[in-house]
């Protein structure tokens, strides 16, 4: 009953550990790396008998080597043994049996099975099943003193006994570092009916409760290729999104720049059109202004005064700026002074004076269509004194 209670207690503890293991978070950057490991264990053995539990306890030890193929499945080989016990009922006497056994076992990591792989997990419950061969020696049943061994034992053996072994058990690993773990396990061993020399026509049972250290040989983890691929894909996606964002920003900037350029172009065209319109208007106004140029003279004079000469500057500049313009020069004299004949000659001299003045300022004579004096026959102005004038008109 005590052994059964021990098994049930350990099983409940392992189930609780499995539940906790499922809540732990793994490091996605690492994945499981298959590896070899070794175990050294020591503890107590109990051989089922017909007396108190404590009377049949004996020392036990194990040395194991294994290979973890996946986070869940492993295979281990090793040797266990030391001592077993039995008893004679009446008169009561306990005897010892030396033994050693070799076995191979399939291990299943329950935490990784149900909770997923996590190399940082503290508790790693496991179970195992396997078999092997046990070798019994130094049979204490031959040495009992209170009972005749040959009469009492139905399977009495003297030198040694060889028995197949079926093994099963549960345990847990407690992580101390990436390479070292403390192990606790309880295992059961089924041996043939001859092991304790008694004949009961049922297998003999021996149980071990062991604690020890598990040492991994080599790396238990390696960089996760799936994680690296996922990380690379994520980075590629982020880069693509960044490139798309930059392209969108660049396109938006180009659109805004194009709109700004279009507005600036429209504004420039508008300003240019306004400037051209102003220039045309100014040119037309100037052309209208310059289409008739009046040069006034003093009475009985054909000499251009300095004041009147100064007024020619804008007109001469305009003529030079418009080389296609051709002009007509007409001189006049007022009726209020002199005779018709005298006034005709005076108007001729006045017209010639203006022509000479323009040619002297760089205006080609070929641009002057005609130079004519009108005397006093025509009076351009109503006021008499204003008709002492030369009028230049554009053809």
Describe this structure in words.
- Helix content is 34%, strand content 37%.
- It is of the alpha+beta class and 395 residues long.
- It has three domains: 2-223, Beta Barrel (Porin); 241-287; 291-394, 60s Ribosomal Protein L30, Chain: A (2-Layer Sandwich).
- The strands form three sheets. An eight-stranded antiparallel barrel has the order 2-3-4-5-6-7-8-9. A four-stranded mixed beta sheet has the order 11-14-12-13. Strands 1-10 form a two-stranded antiparallel sheet.
- The chain is rod-shaped, with a radius of gyration of 64 Å.
Structure, briefly:
The chain is an alpha+beta fold. The protein contains seven helices and 14 strands.
CATH topology of the largest domain: Porin
- Total strands: the figure is 14
Q: Distance between termini?
A: 140 Å
Count of helical stretches = 7
What Rg is obtained from the alpha carbons, in whole angstroms? 64 Å
Share in β-strands: 35-45%
Given the helix and strand composition, which structural class is it?
A: alpha+beta
Topology:
Elements: H1 2-23, E1 30-32, E2 35-47, E3 57-68, E4 73-88, E5 93-109, H2 110-115, E6 123-139, H3 149-152, E7 160-175, E8 180-191, E9 204-217, E10 221-223, H4 225-290, E11 292-296, H5 306-310, H6 312-321, E12 327-331, H7 340-360, E13 368-373, E14 389-394
């Amino acid at each position: 009953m005590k052994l059964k209670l021990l098994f049930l207690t350990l099983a409940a503890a392992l189930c609780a550990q499995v539940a906790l293991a499922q809540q732990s978070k793994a490091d996605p950057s690492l994945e499981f790396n298959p590896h070899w490991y070794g175990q050294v264990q020591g503890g107590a053995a109990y051989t089922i008998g017909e007396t108190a539990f404590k009377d049949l306890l004996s020392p036990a030890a194990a040395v194991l080597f294994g290979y973890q193929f996946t986070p869940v499945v492993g295979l281990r080989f090793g040797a266990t043994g030391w001592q077993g016990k039995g008893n004679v009922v009446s008169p009561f006497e306990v005897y010892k049996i030396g033994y050693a056994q070799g076995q191979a076992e399939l291990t299943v990591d329950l935490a990784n099975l149900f909770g997923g792989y996590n190399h940082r997990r503290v508790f790693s419950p496991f179970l195992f099943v396997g078999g092997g061969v046990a070798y019994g020696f130094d049979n204490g049943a031959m040495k009992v003193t209170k009972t005749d061994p040959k009469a009492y034992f139905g399977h009495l053996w003297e030198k040694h006994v060889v028995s197949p072994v079926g093994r099963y058990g549960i345990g847990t690993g407690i992580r101390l570092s990436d390479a070292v773990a403390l192990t606790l396990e309880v295992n059961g061993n089924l041996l043939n009916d001859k092991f304790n020399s008694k004949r009961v026509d049922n297998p003999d049972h021996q149980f071990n409760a062991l604690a020890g250290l598990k040492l991994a040989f080599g790396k238990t983890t390696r960089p996760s290729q799936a994680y690296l691929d996922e990380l690379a894909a994520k980075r590629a996606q982020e880069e693509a999104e960044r490139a798309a964002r930059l392209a969108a920003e660049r396109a938006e900037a180009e659109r805004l720049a194009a709109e700004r350029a279009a507005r600036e172009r429209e504004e420039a065209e508008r300003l240019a059109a306004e400037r051209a319109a102003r220039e045309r208007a100014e040119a037309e106004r100037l052309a209208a202004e310059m289409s008739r140029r009046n040069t006034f003279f003093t009475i009985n004079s054909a000499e251009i005064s300095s004041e009147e000469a100064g007024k020619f500057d804008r007109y001469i500049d305009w003529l030079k700026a418009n080389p296609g313009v051709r002009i007509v020069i007409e001189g006049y004299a007022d009726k209020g002074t002199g005779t018709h004949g005298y006034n005709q000659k005076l108007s001729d001299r006045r017209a010639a004076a203006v022509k000479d003045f323009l040619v002297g300022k760089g205006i080609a004579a070929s641009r002057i269509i005609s130079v004519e004096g009108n005397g006093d026959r025509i009076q351009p102005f109503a006021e008499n004194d204003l008709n002492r004038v030369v009028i230049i008109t554009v053809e």
